Description:
Elements: H1 6-13, H2 17-23, E1 28-36, E2 42-50, H3 60-69, H4 73-91, E3 96-101, H5 103-110, H6 116-123, E4 130-134, H7 146-155, E5 159-165, H8 172-178, E6 182-185, H9 197-213, E7 216-219, H10 225-234, E8 238-239, H11 256-259, H12 263-270, H13 274-277, H14 310-319, E9 325-330, E10 333-339, H15 340-348, H16 352-356, E11 371-373, H17 378-387, E12 397-401, E13 404-409, H18 411-427, H19 438-451, E14 455-463, H20 465-472, H21 474-491, E15 498-503, E16 506-511, H22 516-538, E17 546-549, E18 555-558, E19 562-570, H23 578-593, E20 599-603, E21 634-637
Parallel strand pairs: 2-3, 3-4, 4-5, 5-6, 6-7, 7-8, 11-12, 19-20
Antiparallel strand pairs: 1-2, 1-8, 9-10, 12-13, 14-16, 14-19, 15-16, 17-18, 20-21
Keywords: CBS domain
GO molecular function: cyclic-guanylate-specific phosphodiesterase activity
InterPro entries: CBS_dom, CBS_dom_sf, Cyclic-di-GMP_PDE-like, EAL_dom, EAL_sf, GGDEF_dom, Nucleotide_cyclase, Rev_trsase/Diguanyl_cyclase
Amino acid sequence: MCEPPICDAVRREGLDDIAALLLRGELNAVFQPIVWMREGAILGYEGLVRGPLGSPLHAPDRLFEAARARGLSVRIEHRCCRVVVRRFAALGLPGRLFLNIGPMALLHAADGALDLIALLAESGLDPARVVIEITEQDQGAFWTDLPPVIARLRAKGLQFAIDDLGSGFSNLGRWLDLRPEFIKTDKVFTAGIQDDLLRQQILRSVCDIATVAGAVVVAEGVETLDELACMADLGVACAQGYYIQRPADEPVPPRWSELTAGLAERRLRDMRDMHEASDGRESDPAHDGAEGRALRLLRRVPCVSSAVSNEAVFDLFRRQPDLHTVPVVDDEVPVGMLTRACLIERFSLPYQRELYGPKPCRLFMDVAPLIVDMHTPLMTLSRWLAESEGHGLANDFIITGRGRYLGIGSSQDLLQALNRLQLRAAQHANPLTQLPGNVPIDRQIQRFLTAGQAFVACHADLDHFKPFNDVFGYRCGDDVIQLLGRVLSAHADAGQDFLGHIGGDDFILLFRSPDWQAKCEAMLADFSRGMARLLEGMGRVAAAGYEAEDRQGQRRHYDPPTLSLGAVLVEPGAYQSRHQIAQAASEAKTQAKKRVGPCLYVERRRPRASSAAPSATSLSTASLGVAGKEQGPTDRNL
Length: 638
């Protein structure tokens, strides 16, 4: 798109030397990487702009402040877009380009002042690789005009992000209006987050909302290993900041292994590993979200140091009749626990109060109370209480965050919370197989997508089930479905895989096991053997099959039900929503059902959107059990 000559614009508008400097285009693009937290794969780069080196306008905040003062905000933003897009294309950087633009500049970009689509075409960039970060330097007066503009650009393949959520005028209302694919949280929530429970809870809530909305959360401003570790523990999908890499004019991919060298050791020291605590059972309803963890049970109660006298603790119990447990904490670290019953029993003995009342409470405290991290799953906690010697379901326990005292939890609250979780899980379970239904399936797929995890989505379906059910009745049909549920459950790894029952004879498996293909083949073989035993027990169906009406009402011969599996490899960035994954798995299942007999069909072709995917994945193709680099589908009959 042609622009008026710079010198003419300068003369016509009477701009001073600084404004002329802005219009001459002495702007430089720099790029800062955004990485997936799981493995450090590149999601993309945020394009940033610097003014002329050595001038007062080199810093971007002063550059844009000067532009606003002279009414050049829109023009300077458009020029920045051109500089960033062209430089990104020239460098051949991988992943997505995150492009900053304000609401007013975006509106003008749509009316001809900046043709984004033409600019991308000129630079050879696929629009699907571009994410528009909508910045907010004003109070959002132009937001009401944005939805149709955003819809037109989305139709061309562009995606959107809300920048600096929680800063300035960014709010949840913007989230509702825009429905962005990415949410970038402001650095104010990142700074010192490892020591701030409120910041952690806010970020966790943002991640929970993003899971429902199908958005990816990017935490900005990560500047230390502690902050990076905390973000990983909170389940934040992506991160960006100086600790990972500073903006550079020619960036190189950050060395993730070096950045996270101390991460594992620090986690082991500061908090229990959440995956180990839950035995890896991510699909357990009691492990799902904050409600399924010990933090849900937290109660704030007074604590004392180990040097406080027994008499002072006794007086504390006397003044607070509802208080039954007092934690003993030194330098924010729990070292013991005192109970009302224990102290009263001690003082009831002759001369004990007179002798030990003035002495420190460390003499009477339980030096080995049960201490749990706030992220400990409730099911794991209940097992610890049941198995713990000297404790039990009648005792309270101490809850910590990164090793620091937070409060206590009670066994009564634990039992009530477990009951609520089980009731909620039952609401979404299939009544025939008791396996998770559609809602938990959708949540698990979205959780994998948000976390940038690679997995295999496998749709299991029975061949000739409807005529079998029609001829022999729903009770025999239920026996077949329950047989299938047992076979799939027997081979799915509860620590890595997820099994759900969509309904009828349709099941979904989400594999993270490297040997998923071998598991699928074992499922096919075991179901065939189980079906043979079931038919033999019925005594009415020969192995040769039976006669029944087809969908057109014509009598025809049917073989006994067999199992078909359609599998799709899902890599980070290859699919944008759980609906796309479900459709792809269903199409793979349809291809499997075209084969005669038990069959596993693996769809290896990538969707078109995969060009925007990161160059590395959290599970490599080899680790998912895929031999070679075939791009076409494969199938295997047993």
